[in-house]
Write a structure and sequence with these properties.
The chain has 289 residues and is α+β, with helices and mostly antiparallel strands. Helices cover 29% and strands 22% of the residues. A hairpin with a 4-residue loop joins strand 14 and strand 15 (284-288). The longest helix is centred in the N-terminal third of the chain and has 24 residues, at 47-70. The protein is globular, with a radius of gyration of 20 Å. The structure holds 2-amino-4-trifluoromethylsulfanyl-butyric acid (MF3) and cobalt (II) ion (CO). Cobalt (II) ion binds at residues 146, 208-209, 240, 242, 274.
């Protein structure tokens, strides 16, 4: 049904359409007619939704801070899982990974050549020189937040340290491209170029996602696509930037036994940082880091 100028806006603001989203919708329509992919209304979060995601993000970041306090040589990834689970529940949240498509734990812990989706285990004890990604996803009052950080255990090789740092720079560079009327491919390309400039490669098959009302929403967010391609960025979109950067080849495979753990094909290390970001009227706001 076509919405008229004087109807209430579809976004629930109680404003008239003409004084709310009408101009934006027209601009989006024009860009779509040029052949671009554009977001649908259900991908645009209201202010209330963004407030909810921010509340969820507070728990998410507090948990990652707490991981940073306890993580060290001799700690098992099973103990990290216990901390994430218990602290999330204590703060009124739910760990989103637990039972998600059958995932057995509350957090993903991915060490060295594990690219992502590593399953915590009391028998996997962190040792000197490990690099580990801890990926925390939180549900609070129905709102989802998702972010991950790298932690370096003891004396990490200069090569691995550089991988961790460059991967973080990739996310920071990607963020600078998040603004209305840019495309996801603009963000992806700066990430891919920075990784390549350092001799690294970006994983192709696994990427980011819309997030907020569900764990994984549209759009899929690639970090290898070209400027001016992929979905148009519009105020109200909330998605993750979470490139997986491999020291060697971008090729990966999934563990056949557990069905989750993703490894680099060449056994070289991989790093990942993840933020949840909202597109605002003027640029971006990082909700979790
Ligand atoms: N947290 C991951 C992401 O960033 C998804 C993990 S799915 C799980 O999208 F089931 F392994 F938790
Ligand atoms: Co994610």
């Amino acid at each position: 049904m076509k919405i008229e100028r004087n109807d209430p806006c579809w976004c629930g603001s109680n404003k008239k359409y003409k004084t709310c989203h009408m101009n934006m919708d027209n601009k989006i329509k024009a860009i779509e007619l040029q052949g671009h992919i554009v977001p649908t209304h259900d991908m645009l979060k209201s202010e209330k939704d963004i407030e909810g995601i921010k509340e969820s993000s507070k728990i998410n970041m507090a948990v990652l801070d707490a991981v940073g306090e306890m993580i060290k040589e001799g700690v098992s990834t099973g103990e990290i899982d216990d901390l994430v689970h218990d602290m999330t529940i204590k703060m009124g949240g739910i760990p989103a990974p637990l039972n998600y498509n059958g995932f057995p734990k509350s957090v993903c812990t991915s060490i060295n050549e594990v690219v992502c989706h590593g399953i915590p285990d009391y028998n996997r004890i962190l040792k000197d020189g490990d690099i580990i990604n801890v990926d925390v996803s939180t549900i609070y009052k129905g709102y989802f937040s998702d972010s991950s950080r790298m932690y370096m255990i003891g004396n990490v090789s200069p090569e691995a340290k550089k991988l961790v740092e460059v991967t973080k720079e990739c996310v920071e560079l990607g963020l600078t491209m998040v603004k209305p009327w840019n495309f996801l491919g603009d963000m992806a390309d700066v990430i891919n170029q920075h990784a390549k400039d350092n001799g690294y490669s970006v994983v192709v098959e696994i990427g980011g996602h819309g997030v907020g009302l569900e764990f994984h929403e549209e759009p899929f967010v690639s970090y290898i696509t070209k400027p001016g391609t992929e979905m148009l960025m519009v105020p109200g979109m909330v998605f993750t930037i979470e490139p997986m950067v491999n020291m060697g080849s971008s090729r990966i495979y999934t563990d056949e036994d557990d069905g989750w753990t993703v490894y680099t094909d060449d056994g070289l290390p991989s790093a990942q940082w993840e933020v949840t970001v909202a597109v605002t009227e003027t640029g971006y706001e990082v909700l979790t880091w």
